[in-house]
Amino acid sequence: MVNLPRQDDGLLSSSDDQGANLRRQNEHARSTASESIKAVAIYEVVKGVGALVGAGALWSWHTNLDHWLTMVQIFWQQRFGELLAPQVDSAVQLAQQASKNWPMFLLLIVAYAALRFLEAYGLWQDKTWAYWFGVLGYVVFIPLEVYYLIASPFDWFKLGILVLNILIVVVVYRNMKQKGLL
Question: What is the spatial distance between Cα 87 and Cα 97, in angstroms, rounded to a whole number?
Fold first, then answer.
């Protein structure tokens, strides 16, 4: 009987085996989301959870919302002074408008949260539609953010949001190019 070498004897594998290994590695690279995309997905989950917290607050406090909003403003001013005061005031005004038609706003907030969770799931699972949804969703708002940054008094918070959104577009776009989606 002839002793044939086994695959694990340290001999070089055939070019067919090397090609199969290369294909498996490429498929694995294409089918898993990168760490940067997973970070964007986590950011989307955080936004969705924040929206649901807001929806829960609206649901719980809609009958006495003005009182709660006043308490939040006072608490914020005592703890943080003028830090993000314009954003807090804007959020309070929006919440006061929401209290007038709270069921509709509650539905909109929950729908927004569902979209964030859907996008996060798609990005985490490395779905093509999620890449397109993410990049288009952020690109649409960048001109609006630039306009508000220029048209209103300078605000570091608005600048930070703009930079973050541009960074997310770059990350998603770069990953789309790597995966051959563009």
Answer: 15
In single-letter form, the type of residue at position 14 comes to S
CA distance 129 to 126: 9
Number of CB atoms found within 10 A of residue 125's CB = 12
- CA distances (Å), origin 35, targets 43, 78, 87, 114: 12, 39, 31, 23
**pLDDT tens digits, one per residue of 60-78:** 877 777 788 788 788 878 8
Please answer whether residues 133 and 122 qualify as being in contact, where contact means their C-beta atoms are separated by less than 8 angstroms.
yes
Residues 6+ apart with CB under 8 A from 91: none
pTM confidence score: 0.67
**Among 40, 56, 29, CA closest to 172:** 40
> Can you list the positions of beta strands (E) in the chain?
none
The mean per-residue pLDDT over the stretch 150-174 comes to 89
For 72-116, the DSSP string reads HHHHHHHHHTTTTHHHHHHHHHHHHHHHHTHHHHHHHHHHHHHHH
Query: 67: which 2 tokens?
Result: 């009182």
- Average pLDDT of the segment spanning 158-162: 89
